[in-house]
Amino acid sequence: MSIILKNFCYLILQITSVLSIQFLLRGHNYPGGGFIGALVASIGVIFYLLAFKQLPEFLIGRYRYFIATGIVLFILSITLPLVIGLDPLTGLWQTVTIGRTTIKLGTPLVFDTGVFLAVLGGFLCIFDKLEIEAYG
Amino acid sequence: MSQLLPITALFILPIIAIIVMLFFTTQEQHPRVGYYQLLLCTLSLVITGLLFLGFDRTKVITMASWPAPFGITLLFDTLTKFMLLVFSFIGLVINYFSLGDHRVGRSQCYLYCGYWLLMLGITGALATVDIFNLYVWCEVILVSAFIILRSDIKDNTKPILHYATINITGTLLLLIAIGLLYASTGQLNMAAIAESIHQDNSALCISAMALLLLGLGIKGAIFPLYFWLPEAYPNTSSSATLLLSSFVTKVIMLVILRLVWLWPPLQAQPLQSLFIALACCTMVFGVFGAANEHRMRSILSFHIISQLGYILLAIFIPSQLAIVAALYFLIHNVFVKSTLIMVAGIIEQHCGTDDLGRVAELLKACPLLGLICFIAAMSLAGIPPLSGFWAKLLVLIVSFTTQHYAAVIFAIIVSLLTLYSMIKIWRYGFCQANETANIASKPFQLTTRQTISLIGLSIPAVVIGLLPIVIFPVLERIAAQLTDTTHVINLILGG
């Protein structure tokens, strides 16, 4: 495969990875969220697959852990409010101030991250199987 | 709080179970996977049992603390709790049986993953009172059904394709109906929709409800759109047939039951007559389909449809006794039909086929199997004093007292035809000698596993037949709760 395509696709993977995290983080109040973030990230992976005919080294065989971590995270976000005596999935928020920026962190973000990882893991699993069928 | 824990556990246990099962998929056939599965099933039975202990106290949970019309509300009333208990008991027995099922494909883990996904979907679909959430749970059930159907050593892609195409169409109809309902009432909560119907009874709203019922009807195998069921159910492993036939269509019926009592237009004139007519057609065409089949499981699959017709008939008759009739029929049917399908599965394991033209004299080969099959078949046909008799009698009584005489006549005819079908199975499979049968009916013993699972399924069926009194108080409690619509609506919206 040509060097131009390889570099281009690598670039796209980088851009979509950053973009997907941006989508994940803004997802609570604006369009986006864990699922869409994972879709965007997986677009990058598709381009990478097109050029290199295999998943990035560090991802091969790792999607299991993605799915497992994702599920554990969203179970956490369901049960954490229960421990305090609230209804399941209730958002618990904590404001963190670092220097002059204030960040609101909460269980919805944990939930979104869980969905992000689980969906991304699922897609990687599909791509891996398809790629094996296509390129042997 | 005391109920919140088992309820959360009900939703989290299947997810954890799926993870546990997925760990086993890497190995070909893990020896201990069955024990883990049984342990998890027992755990789920214990949880539903704990939940059922407080069956009188309805629990309303608002997800994420969003108040009722906005957030997703889960309603755990007696209906949900009792059916979950029944389903998880049957699930335990079927899973125990499936450990010895040779037709379950290369890796049992996928069947078990499918089972847990199905349990998750059932819990959600029974509990939710938000129609969009209901749609999501229906999707979960659909996906799990694909996984379960695929658990077969033979290639059954074609029937699954039928199943997928028709059911996805049903799901899309459901989605369109939900969109229309949201457009006309501005609500997604079933109780809130019920309240807004009281205020303005627009044609759009009612037709959207009819469309919603149609979507559910496709998934529940109602008359014109049931062809996916007899195609898909017999062409997979018997454990998969057992799981699907006891859970999927039955849950849809329960959802329809809840909707019918929450939304008055569904029991008002145009829709009520339409669906009673459809229920009669479902009964008749189901049983006619069965007459033409030769494989035991195909016959039984058509009977599933025919029996769904009875349940649907009882659901659409507006009286408290009709709810009792529908639920009693459903529970009787789940146990008895599962017993029969299990018998068919065992015959297939021992003889290689369950084609009635190729097996013969099974009564001599295995008397115990014959006895259990006879009891279950007669119960399904409605011979007193077995459970099927009371179930059909109740349906007949409620349709007679509400002047649905045509439905009564259909129900009686279908009942006779069911008896004919059961006698066909009994005669060709168990009694008559058959020269052309190429399977020598050499005596075989049931394995301990098969005996225990058969007895586990048939004892509840016999008990609710001989002593209906053990189950009626609960069913009457459910009926009282469902008919008290204003109380339910206040509970959901005010909870």
Q: Can you characterise this structure?
A:
The complex is a heterodimer of chains A (about 140) and B (about 500). By secondary structure, chain A is mainly alpha-helical. Chain A has one domain. Chain A has four helices and two strands. In chain A, helix 2 (about 35-50) runs parallel beside helix 4. The longest helix of chain A is centred in the C-terminal third of the chain and has 29 residues, at about 105-135. The relative contact order of chain A is 0.17. Chain B has about 500 residues and is mainly alpha-helical. Chain B has a domain at about 270-495. Chain B is built from 20 helices and two strands. Chain B has helices at about 5-25, 35-55, 80-100, 110-125, 130-150, 155-185, 190-200, 205-220, 230, 240-260, 270-290, 295-315, 320-350, 360-365, 365-380, 385-400, 405-430, 450-465, 470-485, 485-495; strands at about 60, 75. Chain B has a two-stranded antiparallel ribbon with strand order 1-2. Chain B is globular, with a radius of gyration of 22 Å.
Helix content of chain A: 55-70%
Q: Residue share in helices of chain B? A: over 70%
Anisotropy-based shape of chain B: globular
The count of DSSP E runs of length 2 or more, i.e. the number of strands of chain B, is: 2
Beta-strand residue fraction of chain B = under 5%
- If you compute it from the alpha carbons, what radius of gyration of chain B comes out, rounded to the nearest whole angstrom? 22 Å
Q: What is the quaternary state of this protein?
A: heterodimer
List the strand order in the largest sheet of chain A.
Answer: 1-2
How is the main sheet of chain A built?
A: 2 strands, antiparallel
Largest interface: A-B, 16 and 15 residues
Order of helices and strands of chain B: HHEEHHHHHHHHHHHHHHHHHH
Based on helices, strands and strand pairing, what is the structural class of chain A? mainly alpha
Spatial gap, N to C terminus of chain B: 14 Å
Number of helices of chain A: 4
Q: How are strands sequenced across the largest beta sheet of chain B?
A: 1-2
